[in-house]
Here is the input.
Amino acid sequence: MGQEKHNIWSAFEETANRRGRHAAVIYLGTRFSYARLKQFAEKFAGALANLGVQPGERVVLYLPNTIQWVVAWLGTQRADAVCLPITPIYTPHDLKYIANDGEAETIVCADTNFGYVKRVLPETKVKRVIVTQMADLLPWWKRAFGYLADVVPSGKIAFSQDIHSFAKLMSGARPPTAAAPSRQGRDVAEILYTGGTTKYPKGVPLTHALFLVSMDEQIRVPEPLFHIEENVILGNAPLFHILGQTCSLSILLVGGTLMIQPRVNLDATFDSIQRFKAKTMIGVPTLYRMMLEHDRIDQYDLSSVDYWYSAGDVLPVEVGKRWSEKFGKDIYQGYGATETCGGITMCPTNVKNPAKSVGRVVPSKKIKLVDPATLQEVKRGEPGELLVSSEHMVTGYINKPEETASSFVQLEGRLWYRTADILSMDEEGNLYFVDRTVDTIKHKGYRVSASEIEAVLQEHPAVVGSCVVGVPDEKVGERIKAYVVLKADIKGITGYDLIKWCRKQLVSYKVPQYIEFRDMLPKSKVGKLLRREIRDEEKRRAQS
Here is the structure.
């Protein structure tokens, strides 16, 4: 069946029918077979239909990595609806914006963030909320032990006509009556929100065809190392993130096993690898550094993993070298973006990849390296901005015509996405990350918009101006630093006060770690903030 006439649910259903008794998901030590997962997903789809969710309607998934996340994602696809997965640590500020921008009418949330959902309901068009607890769908004895031992986080829930219990819906629901979802091919399957240079996150619509092509070529990269159906992936990347989706969640569409944890805990990670004989681990460079520096790493047997994969930021050479020396295996890298449905380049597993390489271009993508100012191609070996094109590519952001116009460009009869990243390519086709052209900060694998943080700071009544930059840091990529100018008559405001202000409106990984006060900020003749001058100043400080 061609991708144009295919959808995510049918791909999963075919796999589930073939791999029925095989473990699909391992969550908190419990195995869920493909047959059971399919049954859960169909029940959730039936529950959505009973609640009035219509085909094409948008459903926010506001959950940590849990079996319920997987069930809700697959069930939403079965219900012919569109997923909007977001980080479970978003504040009400972000949640309200995305619910409205994405025109969502349903939210599936954890009981621990239900309070945020309840707070924004009056300011959105959300009609129904489905609330789940971390232990829902686990065996009764595990749920009982978790609550008795007080190891299962919980929040207070006020159920009503519009606020529903996930567990109760699942206990009474039946599969939908429709034979199969009708949305397919170029229909939107989900919308992922990404940071960048703008004040607000941008919605990236991913079609069924794009997701299926992208996930298939990325999940099959380690096939030279083992058979794909034997792959047991420990997915430490969040499932709401494109890395977690195409490089771990997508194993469910080809027949392997996905291991997930609600949050990263290194001892739990090591134990899961050892206990369930994981063959793949997905992580960002920060996680690999943390693992190397963990006191108890030598107490565990991690030898089952053949495919260590890192993305989200460039892996420091020193970390890769230490890893190879310790385990005798390389960490493979990749480079991608939400707008391209993940991997643009992936390091092949059947050759020795050069140090610093982020891989070679995957088959479904075409690339150009160009001069950012002229869009003229650069010579092989020279650095240039990476442009990407593909058959099923994203063609723009939702509700963002200006950002779409600046990020997507027509060249030689094709549409190209401008990554705003500078890369170079050697004679063998290996690509290397060089720099970023825009004011985006890479912190712990996340892309953070400098202008979004500046806007929040400038909403403080004492602030007249702000400039936010990334300060290089070997542990987290870049730390976030804000330069702030206060109003002339203001006294007594400290950096701690401004960080506390940011915490109320920004998700935790976007909050500045440093605040420096200035009398003025560098600006151009037309009044444009010159962040590059601040960044250059920070570089000189680091070198002195």
Q: What stands out?
A: Residues 3-270 form a domain with the Rossmann fold fold (CATH 3.40.50.980). The longest strand covers residues 414-425. The chain has a mean pLDDT of 90.
